[in-house]
Amino acid sequence: MAGVNNCIKYSMFLFNFLFWLCGSIILGVSIWLHVSKDATKITGVNLSEFYSALNLLITVGSIIMVLGFLGCCGAIKESKCMLLLFFIGLLLILALQITAGILGAVYKSQVESMINDTFQELLPLSKQPNNIIKDIEDMQQRMECCGVLNGYEDWNGLSFPPSCNCIPQHAACVIKNGKSVWAQSCLTVMNDLLKANLIIVIGIAFGLAAIELFGLAFSMTLYCQIKNK
């Protein structure tokens, strides 16, 4: 009977070691995006639907780390059971990653619409209670923006709060009423942040899909060789 091809065996081991590292990166980046202060501390906005994609990637990263270890052991020990478990687990992970990418793309427009509607309810800012104005000022200072929808124009009737002030001659500043204030509204900054995070989510989800297809092929080839040994 034919023996096990050592090239495939050690290629499988190397692949799974790199696979384990990828799982660690996915887990770390997903957790960072999930707890990012700029992305979560938005007054009155619930981003739970958008973060369902990140929750999936956190699950994917954790399982990938386990599968990477399982695949390494299965390749070195030539264990059919471990390799079969690795194949099934990797196939499920691939399905989860594709789902995460689709969810991120689907929820993008919904999240942007939700933020726009929530900020619209805050206008005019001059009629908001002091506690809401304080929350808005905190958001402006953290995100380096002024106003919620229309920029500094949202503060008509009120003097610009200190949180709108920016460094004079800064590229993101404009001069208004003799003051240097942030030109972008918080809605614009928030949408840019969500788009950047979405690119990371989709890139991770679909970028690793091609690599995982190689892992499926390696594991099944090695499994068949061990079975025929």
Give a short account of the largest sheet: 2 strands, antiparallel
List how many beta strands DSSP finds: 2
General shape: elongated
Question: Spans of 5+ residues with little confidence (pLDDT < 50)?
Answer: 37-46
Total of helices = 6
- Give the N-terminus to C-terminus distance in angstroms: 5 Å
Into which percent range does the helicity of residues fall? 55-70%
Instruction: Please list the strands of the largest sheet in the order they lie side by side.
Output: 1-2
Assembly type of the shown chains? single chain
The helix-and-strand class reads mainly alpha
SSE series = HHHHHEEH
Taking all residues together, what is the mean pLDDT?
76
Q: How would you summarize this macromolecular structure in one to three sentences?
A:
This protein is mostly helical. It has a domain at 6-123 and 189-228.
